[in-house]
Design goal:
The chain has about 475 residues and is an alpha+beta fold. The chain has one domain: Amidase signature (AS) domain (Amidase signature (AS) enzymes, Alpha-Beta Complex), CATH 3.90.1300.10. The protein contains 15 helices and 17 strands. It has an eight-stranded mixed beta sheet, sandwiched between helices. It has a three-stranded mixed beta sheet with strand order 1-3-2. Helix 5 packs parallel to helix 6 and helix 10 packs across helix 13. The two termini are about 15 Å apart.
Length: about 475
């Protein structure tokens, strides 16, 4: 049992399905690993191991051909998602004692497909891409404890990198699946809107915020996506999974034939070392008989567009807290809510038009290219004491999300996107390569990503207990 934590999620589920290991043994293996490494990284601050043990003992071993059947695998749930009877704090002191009475839709779907939640992963307060908050403190990067794990799914990424769990869910508005994946040397997949049905706490017709899987490999991403994806009458954007599921699509995948690469999408400065690592990684894909060209759609205006639409969403989701709770809300979040409340109709209409025009430019790009590739993040993991980068390669930044531009402009396109670990800085910090697929092409993107993952041959981190 001492070696179970080293298994991939796919290997672990194969053993669970075959009866070679029990759900309780997997829970105990996770608990042992969590006890060994958690004090140094603080990735899973909310733990309900006794409840997980009870669920594991009572777990029903069903015979099922569902491709996402997890067969009793313990998983981590992001602290933005509700687990029945457990804390959901959003990293905020306002919700420090909040215990929902029921699972949200994401958790209910995972549980119905054989997952056993055993802990909640740490998050920034409400949103952001550096995981620290006044309730649970800072999450540290397993590769270097002085560095951030990213966010907002930072606890999930750190827990996966440290082998505390085999799978973890995440969510993404401006990069919250991809950025921590890049910083922690794992894989994070932002699916198209509607692939994973969302809970009732989010705007029903919003297409910026999505739920998605995080894992240590593309194969494991396919497994978890099969466990998360479903057609739901409660999500107006919901769509059915592909025939046979996403893992079957992975097995049918092919290498890309033509990749467009840009180090900065023509927008602003990025760290030169990050650019060099990612360019070398994408050039290595030529071994797949793939053409790599310096090409990207026109993303002009996308940064301002996202700032407006993000602020509008913040005002809609959290605006009611401002009057009564201003002093207990992170100042960066206060700024974002106020920005949304102060938007004019003219600004909102202009942002919506800019997003529509961007989508059509991107769609035309994919008439000729299989993938768009770029760095996932413009910087390497930064010190945990720093709230956010204020400068990149000599260029001054003005807001707390400016440094996230390489992921949030991709969010605007609606295209599926994945971050693959592709190399290390001279200081030994992981860097991610972001791959963007055609609109709606989630399954083909995963298939191509599997081939690129093999070509990159990145060695995952093995944190000593």
């Amino acid at each position: 049992m001492s070696e179970l934590w080293q298994l991939s999620a796919t290997e672990a589920v194969d053993k669970l399905r075959a009866g070679q290991v029990s759900p309780l043994e997997m829970v105990e293996a996770a608990a042992t690993r969590i006890a060994a490494v958690e004090p140094s990284i603080n990735a899973l601050p909310i733990r309900f191991l006794d409840e997980a043990r009870a669920q594991a003992k009572a777990f029903q071993h069903l015979r099922t051909d569902h491709p996402g059947w997890l067969a009793g695998l313990p998983i981590a749930i992001k602290d933005y998602n509700d687990v029945e009877g457990q804390l959901t704090t959003y990293g905020s002191p306002i919700f420090a004692e909040h215990r929902p009475a029921a699972d949200d839709r994401t958790v209910a779907t995972l549980r119905a497909n054989g997952a056993i939640p055993l802990a909640k992963s740490n998050v920034p307060e409400f949103a952001g891409s550096h995981t620290f908050n006044p309730v649970w403190g800072v999450t540290r990067n397993p590769w270097d404890h002085t560095r951030t794990a990213g966010g907002s799914s930072g606890g999930a990424a750190a827990a996966l990198a440290a082998h505390e769990v085999w799978l973890a869910n995440g969510s993404c508005l401006g990069g919250s699946l991809r950025i921590p994946a890049s910083f922690c040397g794992i894989v994070g997949f932002r699916p198209s809107a509607g692939v994973v049905p969302r809970g009732d706490g989010l705007p029903a017709f919003d297409s910026l915020w999505v739920e998605g899987p995080m894992a240590r490999s593309v194969g494991d991403i396919g497994l978890m996506l099969d466990a998360m994806a479903a057609l739901s009458a409660h999500d107006p954007l919901s769509r059915p999974p592909p025939p046979g599921g996403y893992q079957a699509s992975l097995r049918r995948g092919r290498p890309p034939r033509r990749i467009g690469f840009s180090a900065n999408l023509g927008l602003r400065s990025i760290d030169p070392e990050v650019a060099s690592i990612c360019e070398a990684a994408v050039q290595s894909c030529k071994a797949l008989d793939c053409a790599v060209e310096g090409a990207a759609p026109d993303f002009s205006g996308a940064i301002d567009c996202f700032q407006v639409l993000r602020a509008l969403m913040f005002a809609g989701v959290r605006g009611e807290l401002l009057a009564a709770e201003r002093t207990r809300i992170n100042p960066d979040i206060v700024w974002n809510i106020e920005k949304g409340l102060c938007l004019s109709g003219t600004e909102i209409i202009a942002a919506q038009r800019a997003r529509e025009a961007l989508f059509h430019r991107v769609a035309r790009f994919f008439d000729d290219f299989d993938l768009l590739a770029c760095p996932t993040v413009a910087v390497a993991p930064f010190p945990v004491e720093q709230r956010f980068p204020t400068e990149i390669a000599g260029e001054k930044l003005t807001t707390y999300i400016d440094w996230m531009f390489l992921t949030f402009v991709i969010t605007l396109t609606g295209c599926p996107a994945i971050s693959l670990p592709c190399g290390l800085t001279k200081g030994g910090l992981p860097i991610g390569l972001q791959l963007v697929g055609r609109p709606h092409a989630d399954a083909p993107l995963l298939g191509m990503a599997k081939f690129l993952e093999e070509a990159l041959a990145f060695k995952p981190f093995m944190m000593a207990a």
